[in-house]
User: Fold Probable endolytic peptidoglycan transglycosylase RlpA from Persicirhabdus sediminis.
Amino acid sequence: MKWFRLLLIAVMVPLLLASCGGGYNGYMQRPYTIKGVRYQPMSVDQALRYKEEGIASWYDESSFLGLKRGNTSIGEKVYPWHVSAAHKTLPLPAEVKVTNLQNGKSLKMRVNDRGPFIKGRIIDLTPRAAKKLGFHKDGLARVRVETVSVGDGKYKRKVKKKWFFGLF
Assistant:
């Protein structure tokens, strides 16, 4: 009977620990399908070179007093005071710099969710991020998104800065 308990613990503990995290080891790159469209996240090397201009929107995954309606794709809770974003193909998590091209304001934020799934939009931000970038009332803004880093902890890889007029 004692061996059965040990076997049960040996099987259940790894399963429980795996369910606690977001199901990724350093960064998430699993392909996924939404509304019949299959998305293949970019490689870490591709993500470290990523820069794009397009339309940003904002979305609200939080609710009153921090009681959440859902978690992000990597299992993180979203609260009203968070500054974070959703992107369709960057590995998760990533850190990006988002610049509002209409007013020049920029902000670094964590990308920890998937989206936006509306044609023509490249990134979704939390309401606080949209407020800091100055487009919360408008709902949409033309932005530039540039990767700062990909991954967490020992897996974190940063974009290498070019110095000396971009030659090195």
Notes: Residues 2-20 form the longest helix (19 residues).
